[in-house]
Automatic annotation (TrEMBL):
Gene3D superfamilies: Bordetella uptake gene, domain 1, Periplasmic binding protein-like II. Pfam families: TctC. Belongs to the UPF0065 (bug) family. It comes from Plastoroseomonas hellenica. This is Tripartite tricarboxylate transporter substrate binding protein. InterPro entries: BUG, Bug_dom1. It comes from the Bacteria.
Length: 329
């Protein structure tokens, strides 16, 4: 009989315990910040620096744990976060690959809806995409390269860090805006192999985020000749934009945004957004990110973040359709 009474009492306590658990203030356990790429890249750097500054802003006992879940161009890590409970303890660093170029180029094999399956939180940073040539290339500016490509259709080859990468779509867009240029695209398995190939002259030009190109450019192994931004970049003020080179409307940047699973409570979204904006506004953080070629965004809203991703995805889908692109292996 006493055992039965104890069991009944324990059962009676369940609703109380559940209510108490639900009433615990957020965050009461570590927030896992998933980076869908290997450690050591610019996205990884941004996430780790920002997590350090967000923790005290979220509460005295708040903790954020950065985890790398790489694979399939960021798809694996993104899908992992999509499947997590919408309780504020799982967030994602998303990029053009995870929520723009790859879903646009490979919709059949992307296992999630990049818009409908996630909750927008904040835009963390943007970085330029640069047009680069080998250090011994005769082309000193975009106009010279474009003239050579027009003079010998199909003769040149160009590289990117992978099929469906932001560099791939930027190169295809350049070809479209330049009047339908023809050249062979060679996708590499990441930024480091691409830069090595470019220094060796295996390809005549490449599109890649500036952060991957900057060191080799400073050493003279490669030369940046065009920027995808609408204004010149302070790291390379002598390099013209592609709009200056005559490609009206050309703009290509890579970006990092913070997302959560679908259905994240608005109160948690607002707290994460405020902490991200405040953390990114710390001057020391801004200086470190600027040195890595990342321009922090300190005033985004969840609504603006969602609109930004939707606009980027639509633009990439338009490029894929107009260039009649198919996935490359």
């Amino acid at each position: 009989m006493p055992t039965r009474r104890l069991a009944l009492a324990a059962i009676g306590m369940l609703p109380f315990r559940q209510a108490r658990a639900q009433a615990q203030p957020w965050p009461s356990r570590p927030i896992v910040f998933t980076i869908p790429f290997p450690a050591g890249g610019s996205a990884d750097l941004l996430a780790r620096l920002l997590a350090e500054r967000m923790m005290p802003l979220l509460g005295a006992n708040a903790r954020m744990v950065v985890e790398n879940r790489a694979g399939a161009g960021g798809i694996i890590g993104s899908e992992f976060v999509r499947r997590q409970p919408a309780d504020g303890y799982a967030i994602l660093l998303a990029t053009p690959s995870t929520h723009g170029t790859v879903p646009a180029l490979q919709p059949e094999t992307t296992p999630y809806d990049p818009i409908g399956d996630f909750t927008p939180i904040a835009i963390m940073g943007r970085a330029p995409i640069a047009l680069a040539v080998p250090g011994n290339s005769p082309h000193r500016d975009p106009q010279a390269l474009l003239a050579a490509l027009r003079a010998s259709p199909g003769a040149a080859s160009w590289g990117s860090s992978g099929s469906g990468s932001i560099g791939h779509l930027a190169g295809e867009w350049m070809n479209l805006l330049a009047g339908g240029l023809r050249s062979e695209h060679i996708p590499y398995r990441g930024g480091a192999p691409l830069v090595e190939a470019l220094t060796k002259g295996e390809v005549q030009y490449a599109w890649e985020p500036l952060g991957s190109l900057a060191a080799a450019a400073r050493d003279g192994l490669i030369r940046c000749i065009g920027m995808g931004t609408t204004t010149r970049h302070p790291l390379f003020p002598d390099v013209p934009t592609m709009q200056e080179a005559g490609l009206a409307g050309f703009e290509a940047t890579t970006w990092n945004v913070m997302l959560g699973p679908k259905g994240l409570p608005p109160a948690i979204v607002q707290r994460l957004n405020a902490a991200a904006n405040a953390g990114l506004a710390v001057p020391e953080l801004g200086e470190r990110l600027a040195a890595a070629g990342i321009d922090p965004v300190t005033d985004s809203t969840p609504e603006a973040t969602g609109a930004f991703i939707a606009a980027e995805l639509a633009r990439f889908r338009d490029i894929v359709a107009r260039a009649n692109l198919r996935p490359q292996r």
